[in-house]
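batch job 7 of whatever, protein = AAA family ATPase
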Amino acid sequence: MLYGRDEELATIDRLLGQVREGRGRTLVLRGEAGIGKTALLDHAAAEASGMRVLRGTGVECESGMPYAGLHMLLSGHLDRIDSLPDAQARALRNALNMGARQDADGGDRFLVGLAVLTLLADLAEEKPLLCLVDDAHWLDGPSVEALLFAARRLEAEPVGLLFAARDMDAPEFPAPGLPEMRLRGLDRAAATELLARHAAELPRHVHHEILAAATGNPLALLELPGLRTQAHDASSAYERIRRSYAEKIAALPEPSRTLLLLVAADDAGGIGAIMGAAERLGASVDDLEPAERRGLLRSTADGRLEVRHPIVRTAAYGDAPLNLRIAAHRALAETYRERGDRCHHAWHLARSATGPDEAVAAVLESTAGDERDTGGNASAAAMYESAAALSPDPAARGRRLATAARAYAFAGLTDRAVELAARAEADLDDPRARADLTLIRASLADEQDRTKEAYRMFAETAASVAELDPRLSGYLFFQAAGAAANAGDYAAVDAIAARGTELELPNASHLRALSRVFAGQNPLAASGDMAGGVAALRELMDGMNLCFGPRDRVRVALWHILIGDIEGAAETAAELEARYREQGAIGLLAPVLMIRARARLMLGHHRDARTAATEGLRIAADTGQHRIRVYLETVLGLLAAIEGDEERCTELTEEALARAVPPSSVHAAAARGLLDLGLGRHEAALSRLSDVVSGPNRQGAIASLPDLVEAAVRAGRPELGEDAAGWYTGWARQIGRPWAEAIALRCAALLAPDGAADAMFAEAVELHRKGGTPFERARTELLYGEWLRRSRRRNDARAQLHSALEAFERLGAAPWAERVRTELRAAGESLAAAGADAGGDDLAARLTPQELQVVRLAAAGLSNREIGAQLFLSPRTVGYHLYKAYPKLGVASRGELPHLDLT
């Protein structure tokens, strides 16, 4: 019975009920040691009738072993990994060091999280699943990341996840976005009842002393009566409980203490390994009984030995003399060596070392090499790091730290990779080796939006190897220029180009071309060379030797947009997206979806753009790609501007404007300017867009020049749009795209005298019909229709306006559609007649972005499992989205989906 926990028990029971109903639920229990977290987990396990229960506990001395916690939690079901989609199965096997490498680098830690989600969902297919994780604050980082990744995606799976984490005297267990329950001490009545039931024989004054000392901590109330020193003790409840357990352990026979120490020192807890080590230290299976009788040790149904409470482990291991801890680890190391478990052998051997030891370091390094060869980069990295710590020779230490940094980077553990790469540099003399480390550190810094730091590291290291390795130097300088541009420092880009020329680097021409690209992206700037910028961009795109890795390929896809090749950008992004989805490379998807969203928006596929941007935004947030996340917010902000949703547009562009780094800041301001223009706030639009194109950094502003022209004309100040129209016209001629030439003609028509405007508008409409940008075509038709109506050519005006209205309504551009209706009324049509032409039923508009993704893939014949693998969802969640979509679409099964128009 749990005293004083009625509300907490009700919360747990409610969670179990929701899981049984098929709803995924997660809860983090927080509180000090002994406050009742473990007891609530025990209650959940006891009440989980009809459910499958997985249980694991974080172990302090194993918190540095990547995926040790995950292995412990899933240990009884590792045979199910083979049923996962190939990429997921491969990633999880690599993470858990199972089997030989199968053309996988183990580099995407988020794919491991997806594999965990799918495995949990598979286990829950048979009956609801409950996962209980005690002492979650001691779990290794990769296990935490994988479990939280899965927890945040539990939707329609009958899976419950309960984490118990200490919030004092322990590391932090951050779980942002997950529901939490913080446990407080029992009230006086409940504490008194609990103590009276378990220690009724104590004198009254001792009862009062214990109540005061325990401060409502249930475990303290149970343990303090047996503690010999109670009065006037100022130590914390945790320390008193630990001391109580230490006294119980000290009272055990020596062989029993040895067994308890072995269990506390080993994460696996297998009876065979524990008893093998115990025999080496003079203990036997008979010595288990005293520890079990005193409530310190227990055996589990799956053949493991475990301590009864996490604090028992702390007391058994922490209070043991150093020589006994060393002896325990050595005995375990030898036992695991005989059993053929090289990984545990190496770890326990490392923990038995008392100082630098090259022999032990060599064993760790050799084992790490095997781990890395089988794709277990996270485990290998931790072993290399441990080997470095035991290396007497600084050169060996630096080499092992460098290897650890690379393995951490491949495993996606970026913060750790950066830290170890920085430490390794101090021990390395070879400039090439130091440059290799800088490439890791700076690339990760750039990805994490620490762009100025990345630029500095790239540039300094590039200069240091210029004479030794010019090609490497040139590549590092190119990366430095990219980082400088990401930071908005275009002067640094120019300086790098000059430096590359001065050093006569092999790719100096590419560095100069990159400088010219950014100069050509600065509209209305005195230094802007738009023609040179477009030519330089084509030169770079032809230099495919720049594409050394996946992110370089993404950069080339973005360059397609910069030269107006929207179809090429969309196709390239789609190819990369398909590749990365097939590989399960979720970390690479965010920048690809960024490009895909922008291209689909420009092509008029707003629904696809929203779907790609929404998914990309979630992935970017998961993977810590802040710069990409902010950019994607501006894409959604532009969609909101087109739709006239002022509140959402403002919200989505706020961070980009505060960050003040182009092109995101420019796109954000441009979105707000377009919103003003659509809502008829012409002076506000003119002011905002004028600021955009006259600011110090204007990357991304070219697309806003036509908006500035229209705002200037509508505000009655057309002269303020002339330079913008001229710049845009020159750019359109350089890229040679019909849609851009059409927009340039529209700008010219707005500024032209009436005698010349008609032909310009007409030619613009014809060019738009060759494809490109439906929203811009509709704007041209609207402006032309307005001009025709003012010229008293009402029939001609209505033809243009009806075409514009159809496009605006299809795109959901509400304020623009209303402007067309106003013009149609002025042209002599009734509102009903104007609305009658809208026609059609847009089935896809009934669905959420994720439902639309799922339905389209289902219509293409993919199974729920295949869809889940592509969208990083569990198969059951895919089924849930289909279940919600069917009634919206008026169908009863997936067999009807291929016959629907879902474009």
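notes: Residues 100-107, 833-840 have pLDDT under 50 and may be disordered.
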